[in-house]
Protein 1
Amino acid sequence: MKNIEHIGIAVKDLEQSGGLYERLLGSPCYKTEEVPSEGVNTAFFKVGENKIELLAATHDESPIARFLEKRGEGIHHIAFKVADILSEMERLKSEGFVLLNEVPKQGADQKLVCFVHPKETGGVLIELCQDLLLY
Ligand code: CO
């Protein structure tokens, strides 16, 4: 794995929390994007070389809606950048980790992503992400 690509934070209201993070970081949101496959709306902020991803649910069955119900607002996942997501997925499986998706899927911000079950990672949901090559 390379660097931490972003930290994902679950929020109830994207607009309200977006305003909060603009004030907190002193920089504007540079991108918003809906990811229908995950049932989320996202807003991205830059902090130096790092990113913060705010996630709000778009419907009640969204994983973010279930997270908010159980745990409330707060840190939802940590995303690590990987050069080769397929080989990293194989490596993690061989180490006994459980992947939440068997094939990489398209995430926000032009990334291929895979999530690792928090049960085997001490309660932290991990996202692997690889830059999506655009042809
Ligand atoms: Co993420």
Protein 2
Amino acid sequence: MADPPQRRALVTEVPGPRSRELMARRRAAVPSGVGATMPVFAAKAGGGVLVDVDGNSFIDLGGGIAVLTVGSSAPRVASAVADQAAAFTHTCFQVTPYEGYVLLAERLNELAPGDVERRSLFVNSGAEAVENAVKVARLATGRQAVVAVEHAFHGRTLLGMALTAKASPYKKGFGPLAPEIYRVPFSYPYRCPVGASYDECGPACAEAAVAIMNSQIGADRIAALVVEPVLGEGGVIIPGAGYLEALAAYCAANGIVFVADEIQAGFARTGKWFSCEHYGLVPDVITTAKGLGGGLPIGGVTGRAELMDAVHPGGLGSTFGGNPVSCAAALAAIEEVEAGDLLAAASHIGEIFSARLKPLVEESRAVGDVRVIGAMAAVELVSDQGSKEPDASAAARVLSACHEEGVIVLKAGTFDNVVRLLPPLVIGEELLVEGLEIFEKAIRAL
Ligand code: PLZ
């Protein structure tokens, strides 16, 4: 299937009449708790464009929340899905296995950093991958405590919510949450939680985190430390040098399973297969989802063989986990990344982001911080650069200005004051720049 024409074109007001009609039906049929960033309904998507049901073409700088690494209708993925669906859509891997699951496990075991023997297990979503990583870590260590960081997001299941930092909207009213979850500071150089300078934030936060683990939990009670090497929902927070390295060393020294949640920042997004590679880390366990399935639902847990094999037979699984169609899509997505050199594409997008967005800090007092790591970028908005007061309404205004002009961008951050860009890695450069021009104009207008 060919991508829709790669251009921005608004042919009705946004939302158009057909989207408005569908939104009314949505309101009557779907609970209002399910959010809606934009009130437009999709008809077709591919490359860097999404076309709505009224014929409006949007530049997609959101990528379906970091899922559309290879685009929304990559030919390899589309034909792998069609072929697999025609052969069989389901058997349940635990009942009668199929090769695609094993092949995908082999590929991820190879791609994961470090020269270690690994095993991979597949589930249906990111949250479920995180849940399973914790199950494996608890069983392999015989310990119960799990440590997560400030501003983290790990999913919306019971354990996912407990590991997630932000109360509203994720946890509010949904308790009691899972016990034995502890929280430590994350290095956030722009707002260092322990008051260190930009350069000292990494080691200072690691020291604070280690002190909490030692004094409030006890290292010998901790099964796992679960951490996104780059926080996604938290606002594209890139930790200072030394932070993750020190935590990984602490885990290794104390028999704690270091789980890198690569669901958002992994799978080529930051210019490496896994964002932990930027820090030279070799995690014990890596969770993946989002981009992995090329748009189809799948989550992966890839971990050291001795940990993964510690679980008794039958202790892991699910009906649909590693569905054959999703595995076929994931294998095709990996091929697509390799054939299209999308690691380099992500780095190149990062250079464009840096060149265009970093100067905004000088130009606008509303821009507190600009963070870029490959094709993952964020602009943090504040009421004033001096006070650093988070400005959620500025972020909301930038979002609606972009949406009205046909550019999809996403909100993020604990304080809802971050605008985040996660374009498909296959977006054309001209289209990307056109989208960024509109985004920059919205920021300058603040
Ligand atoms: N871990 C790092 O980013 C999902 C959430 C969208 P699922 N992030 C997008 C929403 O509003 O629910 C995410 C993540 C990290 C885990 C998850 C959870 O992945 O596939 O959404 O369950």
